[in-house]
Amino acid sequence: MRILQRYILKEHIGPFGISLVMVTFVILLEQVLDILNVIFEKHLPIGMVLEVFGLSLPFILALSIPMSVLMASLNAFGRLSTDNETTAMKACGVDVYSKTAPLFVLAVLLALFMVFFNNRVLPDSNHKLRNMMLKIAYYKPMSAIKPGEFTTIQNYTIYVRENDGNEMRGIVIFDNSAGRFPKSIVAERGTIIQSSSGTSLKAELFNGQMHERDKVEFEKYQLRNFDKFVLNISEVDDQGGFEDSSYRGDRELSSEELGERIESAQKEISKVQDEIATIKQKIKTAHQEDNKADVGKIIRSSQSMLKLKTDHIKDLEEDIRSYKVEIHKKYAISFAIIIFVMIGIPLGMMTKTGGAGVSFTISSIVFLIYYISLVGGESLASKGFVSPFLSMWISNIIFFLIAIFLIYQSRKEKQLFDTRKIFKGISKLFGRKNR
After folding, report:
1. pLDDT tens across 269-310, in order?
2. Can you give the pTM of this predicted structure?
3. How many Cα atoms sit within 13 Å of 241 on the Cβ side?
4. Region for 84 from its dihedrals, namely left if φ exceeds 0, alpha if ψ lies in -120 to 50, beta otherwise
């Protein structure tokens, strides 16, 4: 009997490897199309392009591994069913499902690995990828400045008449950090370069003028001419700039770090609620004042502050929901692997999906439905319509019930549809049309 268990397990290894490569390549191809425009526009070196794809790989694997498990189960049991091997097992009194125990053990181990992967590897790679994309955004900055258009970089708005990639001509720069009256710089020609350390952007301008209004005495106006002027567009401090930012979004955190964020937000909510109680007491006390003008002023000020505090609590509650959704997502997608095995076994036997193409099509449809429900649940949870737990686990619950139903139907020798007959019918249909 152990021979059958090893045989079934062996039938999954090959299809899983092929499926993983194929699915990963398909999703990676989508990533290529997304950043292809950036690659051509910025003329990125091959090393930077490979680094972007390498950092994108963990996110792709988080999706492609569960889908590959489903595809492998469909392919393996579809082939066993097509070749009547499952029929032979049943004729010998062997329960096919009793021989899948090693397969489920492997699925559990893979699910536990994915929990580790989603909590340790994926957040770090997402964080590094975000920093890399930030660096790419400022790589060869002159390529981002289009002639005849206004381009904003940090606190500066830049307009150029001509830009051939090496030099700009007819330059106008507005320094919006100057306050109410922006400082304007006009230059005949110039370039924008990134420093050798990659920590700042500098504009080297030639033959121009600087126009500036006095910040205190607005009627005073300064005009300065220059032959060469170097403008530091972006200086880097210890908090970020072109260096790796230490800030992490919710998809760049492990479950433990997300838990810390939730605890911190809850403490902040308690603090703000105490402040709201104090403001309400202040409003109540104000009504007892004799001076009506002072009462109105205090009440208006307090109500404005009360609204700010209430909005702050709503923002914190929304953050908490997002953090909780991200925690549950890490585990829900991981343990979906076990459910996909439960679905793949009966679905393969009932549809007789022996080919890789058919398995890929069916598994893509199943996984697409699962992923859409997951994204939909995430959206509902962020708006507070459903709990974060239910939003992420409802898909697993529904697919688990479907798996139980399919297993029950397959034990009764039911067949959903015969893929061979379907493809024969399609071939005949196209054959007639060709004739």
Report:
1. 999 999 998 888 887 777 666 555 566 777 778 888 888 888
2. 0.74
3. 16
4. left
